[in-house]
Design a protein that fits this description.
By secondary structure, the protein is an alpha+beta fold. It has 16 helices and 16 strands. The strands form three sheets. The chain has a seven-stranded antiparallel β-sheet, with helices on both faces. Bound molecules: D-malate and zinc ion.
C-alpha cells in the first residue's frame, strides 16, 4: 500500500530545501514522476529540487532515516522507465543543479553539475571551438546526470564511444550517504576499483551524480553522408567488413519498413528506390577518403549508392532516420534494443523475419545495436520470451543502449547468469544498504 508523507515528514523536507523546492501538487507529481517510456502511471508523493550537493546529501540522509525511496530524475527522456516513480517515491529532480562550472580548452574538459542539458554542453563546446560527441535524439532535453546514469549512446558511439568514454571525472553521493569523489579527471589513474565506470550506467540505483568532468574533442571533420541500398541482407557482414577500413562517424541501419515510415513522415519524402534495407554511413569528406570509399563500394554487393550532394541532402537522409521513432509511436510497438556481433546479424535478421515478418528494425548497426519494434503483438509476454530466445541463441544482449530500468528488470533476472546477478546485488547492498535509491529498477533486490 502506498504511504503518504506525514505533516512531520513533509515539514522536514521543507526545512531541508525550502518551501519552493518541495512540490506535492498533482501536476508536478505527474510530470516529474514520468519519463518517455510511459512504463507505468506516475504516482510519487512529492518532487524535490535540490540546488546544491549539500542539499542532495541531506535528502539521502532523510531517505535513510525515514526509509523513503527516492527516484533520481534528469530530463526524463529514458525509454525503459528508470526515472518513473509509480509507487509513492520522492522524485529528486536535478534540474536546479544546472551550472557549467568550468571549461578548460587546454585540457579539453568541461566540469558541470548534473542538471545541465546535453545540448548546452554541446553548445558550450562549440563556442570554444570544440565538440561534445554524445549526440542523440533527446539531446535537447536530456541532462548530463541522466546521460551518466544511463550511459547514453546515440549515433556517434561507433566513433567516440558511449557516455562512459566521455566522463573524465565524477562526484556522487551513494545511497548510503557516502561520497565517491573521482574528480581528478586524469587520463591515467589506476588507483583501485573503477568506481567511476561502475556508477556510469547504474541508473540511479547506487548513487546520484553531483558533478561531472566531461571530455571534449576536436570538431568532427566535414562528413560525406552515403546511403547504401541493399537487396540482400546476407551481404551485410561483407559490406560492413569493407567499411571497417574507413574511419566511420556513423553507420545506421533502416530496414524497408523503417525507412518507409521515416520517409513518409517528411514534408518532401526522398525519391529513393525500395530496398530490403538501407545503410547510412558517414566518413570524412576529404577527396582521398571519398574516392577510396567509392572504389570500395563499387566492388560491394549493394544495389545502389547515394552520396549526399549537399549538406541539405545529408540532412534529408538524417531526417528520415530521426523520424522513425516518432512515426512508429501511433502503432504502439513493443520495443526492443538488442545487440549482437556483426557476423551474426544476417542470422539474427533471418530469425526476426521468420517470426515477425512485419517487424520494424533500425538502429546503430555499426556498433551492433538494433532497435527491434514489433507491431500488432497479441501476446507481449510470449513475444518477449521469443526475443530473449534469439538473444540467447546468438549470444547478444537484451539491451545495447536503452538500459534496464523498470521495463527490463525482470528480463535481466531471467537472462543473466546467477553469479553475475549476485555480484550486482552485492554492489547494490554495499552502496545502498537500505535500498532507498530507485527500488524496482535494474537489479531489483
Ligand atoms: C534511436 O536510436 O532512434 C533511439 O534509441 C530511439 C528508439 O529506439 O526508438
Ligand atoms: Zn538508439
Amino acid at each position: 500500500m502506498k504511504r503518504a508523507l506525514s505533516d512531520k515528514q513533509q515539514d522536514a523536507l521543507v526545512q531541508l530545501l525550502g518551501k519552493p523546492a518541495v512540490c506535492v501538487d498533482d501536476n508536478s507529481r505527474k510530470t516529474y514522476g514520468a519519463d518517455w517510456s510511459q512504463a507505468a502511471d506516475p504516482d510519487p508523493v512529492a518532487v524535490v529540487f535540490p540546488s546544491t550537493r549539500e542539499q542532495l546529501h541531506a535528502i539521502i540522509a532523510y531517505a535513510n532515516e525515514w526509509r523513503w525511496p527516492l527516484v533520481p530524475s534528469g530530463g526524463r527522456t529514458g525509454l525503459t522507465g528508470a526515472a518513473v516513480a509509480a509507487h509513492g517515491e520522492i522524485v529528486v529532480s536535478l534540474e536546479k543543479m544546472n551550472r557549467i562550472l568550468e571549461l578548460d580548452t587546454r585540457e579539453r574538459l568541461l566540469i558541470c553539475e548534473p542538471g545541465v542539458i546535453t545540448a548546452q554542453v554541446q553548445q558550450a563546446a562549440r563556442e570554444h571551438g570544440l565538440f561534445y560527441p554524445v549526440e542523440f535524439g533527446a539531446e535537447g532535453s536530456s541532462q548530463v546526470g541522466g546521460n551518466i546514469a544511463t550511459n547514453a549512446g546515440g549515433v556517434r558511439v561507433l566513433r567516440y564511444g558511449m557516455t562512459r568514454a566521455q566522463v573524465a571525472g565524477l562526484q556522487a553521493v551513494t545511497g548510503h550517504g557516502t561520497w565517491i569523489d573521482e574528480m581528478r579527471c586524469l587520463r591515467k589513474d589506476n588507483a583501485g576499483y573503477a568506481l567511476r565506470e561502475l556508477l556510469i550506467g547504474s541508473e540511479g540505483t547506487l548513487a546520484i551524480t553531483t558533478q561531472a568532468g566531461l571530455r571534449l574533442c576536436e570538431p568532427m571533420p566535414a562528413l560525406a553522408t552515403v546511403l547504401l541500398l541493399l537487396d540482400d541482407i546476407n551481404t551485410l557482414p561483407e559490406v560492413l567488413r569493407a567499411m571497417q577500413r574507413f574511419p566511420l562517424y556513423a553507420c545506421e541501419w533502416m530496414d524497408q519498413r523503417a525507412f518507409a515510415l521515416g520517409n513518409e513522415a517528411q514534408a518532401n519524402p526522398l525519391g529513393v528506390a525500395s530496398a530490403a534495407g538501407y545503410l547510412m554511413i558517414e566518413a570524412p569528406a576529404d577527396a582521398m577518403t571519398v574516392e577510396a570509399l567509392s572504389a570500395a563500394l563499387a566492388t560491394q554487393p549493394v544495389a545502389d549508392v547515394l552520396l549526399a550532394q549537399s549538406s541539405k541532402q545529408a540532412e534529408g537522409f538524417w531526417a528520415v532516420r530521426d523520424s522513425i521513432t516518432g512515426a512508429l509511436k501511433p502503432r504502439h510497438p513493443l520495443k526492443f534494443d538488442v545487440g549482437f556481433r556483426a557476423s551474426r546479424m544476417p542470422a539474427v535478421f533471418a530469425a526476426i523475419a521468420q517470426q515477425w515478418p512485419d517487424a520494424v528494425v533500425y538502429g546503430h548497426l555499426g556498433d551492433g545495436n538494433l532497435h527491434l519494434n514489433l507491431v500488432n503483438v497479441q501476446d507481449p509476454l510470449h513475444a518477449q520470451a521469443q526475443v530473449w530466445q534469439i538473444v540467447k541463441q546468438f549470444q547478444g544482449t537484451i539491451t545495447a543502449e536503452h538500459g534496464i530500468g523498470m521495463l527490463r528488470s525482470r528480463a535481466l533476472q531471467s537472462t543473466e547468469a546467477h553469479d553475475r546477478l549476485s555480484a550486482m546485488r552485492a554492489i547494490k547492498q554495499a552502496l545502498d544498504p537500505n535500498g532507498i535509491l530507485n527500488p524496482g529498477k535494474l537489479v531489483s533486490t
